[in-house]
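Quiz preparation item.
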């Protein structure tokens, strides 16, 4: 008995799924190490610390970062994204340590560049959350985040990072006008070759929780409640919106962004697709800490195949249109791809 008698006699889509070689050759999307960016946490301690909410992820001292960077190069991962864990005594209301050329982020960038030159891309976050006493990405006054005053500090932060040698600055703060200001500031300081990857569509997401544990901004943000602003919803986007994401991207492009990012990735596949098809510029997506943690936790419980789930979750981000994917799975996926 035919399933559709007389209607589609020759169409049997299962035929092209019948062999592994055939599935491979007809696959529309494939992943390679070149699609991946590896986010790394650096801290100013000697020990390697595990991050409880992100199994397999560690806070590393600078020499540990250098080893990880070496592994990235060996695995063919083109770039790392660096996140400093700033000691609480360095956190202040004015985030001044963000633009101290001797800070941990700058020292790490210099060490990586000394060791690996241009064989590995170094991407640095530009935002104040590691440096503010209250954990917000911007300066806080009377329960409000000050936009333009924050942008000035971001520019100073970006300049010390560029001086230290980072290839890409990635503003993740979501202040208005920061991309244009950063471009002007970088150019004025002879850094016209430094790339801006803007976190253009960054949502106020519950999936950043483990990251905030990893960098220690969760505790700081806890204190912000008493100061009238306990979440980031006045600057990060409402997850309900996608047209607004396109407006954010359009503005950032107009202001000089070279590449844009959508974040979190897994809950924004529609946004990634719209951004890529509308603007056609290099589009990155960040599979964030909570997305990683969910898969790891389920795998540790034996509830799903962690390796397959990781691969699938990253492949669909590529399928949605991402050119580059920041993911904590980067090394394990790259190792798997290498066979
Ligand atoms: C800070 C920043 C965050 C992430 C990257 N940069 C957290 C936040 O906005 O609170 C999240 C990354 C992740 O969850 O993996 N500006």
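Solution:
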């Amino acid at each position: 008995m035919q399933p559709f008698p007389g209607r589609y006699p020759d169409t049997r889509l299962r035929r092209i799924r019948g062999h592994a070689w055939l599935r491979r050759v007809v696959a529309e999307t494939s992943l390679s190490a070149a699609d991946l960016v590896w986010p790394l946490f650096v801290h100013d301690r000697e020990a390697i610390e595990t991050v409880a909410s992100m199994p397999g992820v560690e806070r590393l001292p600078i020499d540990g970062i250098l080893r990880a960077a070496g592994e990235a190069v060996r695995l063919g991962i083109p770039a790392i994204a660096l996140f400093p864990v700033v000691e609480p005594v360095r956190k202040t209301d004015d985030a001044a340590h963000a633009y101290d050329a001797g800070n941990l982020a700058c020292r790490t960038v210099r060490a990586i560049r000394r060791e690996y030159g241009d064989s590995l891309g170094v991407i640095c976050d530009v935002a104040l959350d590691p440096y503010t006493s209250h954990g917000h990405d911007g300066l806080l006054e009377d329960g409000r985040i000050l936009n333009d005053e924050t942008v000035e500090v971001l520019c100073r932060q970006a300049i010390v990072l560029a001086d230290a040698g980072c290839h890409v600055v990635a503003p993740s703060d979501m202040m208005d006008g920061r991309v244009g200001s950063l471009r002007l500031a970088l150019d004025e300081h002879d850094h016209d070759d430094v790339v801006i990857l803007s976190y253009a569509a960054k949502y106020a997401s519950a999936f950043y929780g483990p990251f905030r544990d990893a960098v220690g901004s969760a505790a700081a943000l806890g204190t912000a409640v008493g100061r009238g602003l306990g979440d980031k919803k006045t600057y990060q986007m409402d997850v309900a919106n996608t047209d607004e994401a396109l407006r954010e991207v359009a503005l950032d492009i107009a202001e000089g962004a070279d590449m844009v990012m959508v974040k979190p990735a897994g809950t924004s596949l529609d946004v990634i697709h719209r951004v890529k098809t509308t603007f056609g510029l290099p589009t990155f997506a960040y599979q964030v800490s909570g997305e990683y943690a969910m898969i790891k936790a389920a795998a540790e419980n034996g509830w799903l195949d962690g390796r397959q789930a990781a691969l699938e979750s990253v492949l669909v981000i590529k399928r949605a249109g991402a050119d580059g994917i920041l993911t904590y799975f980067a090394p394990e996926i790259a190792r798997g791809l290498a066979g």
